[in-house]
């Protein structure tokens, strides 16, 4: 294997002390400060006219109306349009989660129920919101379209127990979703 030697550039004393970069950064900061004091800062029209610059007055103003379509918020479970659980407890979301925030305990399905076609259903489904990194991998891997990322971004639990969302809470937050659900497809 051949090695190529690369000559490193020689830095001057000013470059080694980062003086030039420090002055450039302070220049940008003072430019934004001057524009915000005059009232001509970029993006000021998106927020309220109160305050200086582009600061959002948080309790009164929220991002809800400005969230993009691709925003990934908190994961939730959804039901089908007829009210049945979409989750078949395949545990793919638990295995793919890089933060190990999801815990699924599979349970059995009653033979006389309308969901008798599926082999199992989740007895317990928990997501630890303190561990979740909102990557969206659980939504991508779900074969039954049972888990979706909502637009929720205000997650402020009072203690650690409130941060762990159980199956009932996840279904309440997720609601119902329309569309084809593979586990009830008669041709599957």
Please outline what is shown here:
The chain contains six helices and five strands, in the order ααβαββαβαβα.
Structural notes for this entry:
- The structure is a single chain.
- The protein has 188 residues and is of the alpha+beta class.
- The chain has six helices and five strands; from the N terminus they run ααβαββαβαβα.
- It has helices spanning 13-16, 19-38, 92-96, 137-141, 160-163, 167-174, and strands at residues 75-77, 102-108, 120-128, 147-149, 164-165.
- Strands 2-3-5 form a three-stranded antiparallel β-sheet. It has a two-stranded antiparallel ribbon with strand order 1-4.
- The longest helix has 20 residues, at 19-38.
Query: Which segments are poorly predicted (pLDDT under 50) over 5 or more consecutive residues?
Result: none
What's the helix count?
Answer: 6
Average of pLDDT? 84
Spell the H/E element sequence: HHEHEEHEHEH
Q: Which descriptor suits the 3D outline?
A: extended
Strand residue percentage = 5-15%
Category by helix and strand content: alpha+beta
β-strand number: 5
Could you give the distance between the termini? 54 Å
What share of residues is helical? 10-25%
Give a short account of the largest sheet. Answer: 3 strands, antiparallel
Q: Supply Rg.
A: 25 Å
Q: Could you give the order of strands across the largest sheet?
A: 2-3-5
